[in-house]
Design goal:
- The strands form five sheets. This protein has a five-stranded antiparallel β-sheet. The protein has a two-stranded antiparallel ribbon with strand order 1-2.
- The protein folds into three domains: 59 residues, lambda repressor-like DNA-binding domains (434 Repressor (Amino-terminal Domain)), CATH 1.10.260; 83 residues, no CATH class; 99 residues, no CATH class.
- Helices cover 36% and strands 20% of the residues.
- It is of the alpha+beta class and 254 residues long.
């Protein structure tokens, strides 16, 4: 698709008129019309505004999206899973699991490998092959090459440990101690919980990256504990396989 077609499709899918789009990116309606007719293209600063408005990369706006991979974990990147900078703009170099709100979520290569390997097993990899592949690939990615420059000197790890300590201090009956938390994107863990009175509710934002883990209960059975947290809250639930029949155990504001 050409840039004129991409812009027209994004605008119409968002329910915006040419005049409404123009106001959001500080240009005239005539300028938007010229873009969509292929007479002109937005300048660099306007492309940045359009990228933020529509939640897509500038490459996608230009009609020539490239096959990109996350420069932390190596996952193939699509616009729907790219990370966000602190100001909410898309960062086309990282996925939501590795980079959220301007923060890198992994500081240890072995930890990242431990998270990725189980997802690769059964998709053409044995555990040994997956681990060897990750060990070879990760050092070639930009984040790990520039780790000393990009890292936060352990600040995020200290925050995770603080969360772990707070969660364990809650003493939830039957739940083993939390030892680690991983990045989890909201739409994959945003379960709908039954509430008194027959209503059901979700507590997460599909587009936000949280910290969480799954734990086998100390007393056995077919239900798991799910733990999710961020700067604002701690949520603990139980559920069956594939997240079926979730029940909210605890929701605590921090």
């Amino acid at each position: 698709m050409e840039i004129k077609d991409v812009l027209r499709e994004l605008r119409t899918n968002s329910g915006l008129s040419q005049d409404e789009l123009a106001k959001k990116v500080f240009v005239t309606r005539q300028a938007v019309s010229r873009w969509e007719n292929g007479e002109t293209v937005p300048n660099t600063e306007t492309l940045k505004l359009l990228s933020e408005l529509f939640g897509v990369s500038i490459n996608a706006l230009l009609g020539a999206p490239q096959q990109r991979i996350c420069q932390c974990c190596g996952m193939p990147l699509e616009d729907s899973i790219i990370g966000r900078n602190a100001d909410g703009t898309p960062n086309p170099d990282y996925c939501q699991w590795c980079f959220a709100d301007g923060t890198y979520t992994y500081s240890d290569m072995d930890t990242l490998i431990g998270v990725c390997v189980p997802h690769m097993v059964g998709q053409g990899f044995t555990e040994e092959q997956a681990r060897a592949y990750m060990q070879q690939m990760l050092p070639q990615l930009d984040y790990w090459k520039r780790y000393e420059e990009l890292s936060d000197n352990g600040e995020f790890d200290r925050f995770k440990q603080q969360l772990i300590d707070e969660i364990n201090a809650l003493g939830v009956e039957g739940m083993p101690a939390v030892e680690s938390l991983n990045a989890l994107v909201g739409r994959f863990v945003n379960l709908e919980y039954p509430l008194p009175g027959g209503m059901r509710a979700k507590f997460l934002d599909d587009n936000t990256t949280y910290l969480g883990t799954q734990l086998e209960p100390a007393f056995g059975g077919d239900r798991c504990f799910g733990v999710l947290a961020n700067m604002d809250f701690i949520l603990i639930c139980t559920y069956e396989a594939q997240g079926d029949n979730p029940e909210l155990v605890l929701y605590k504001k921090r």
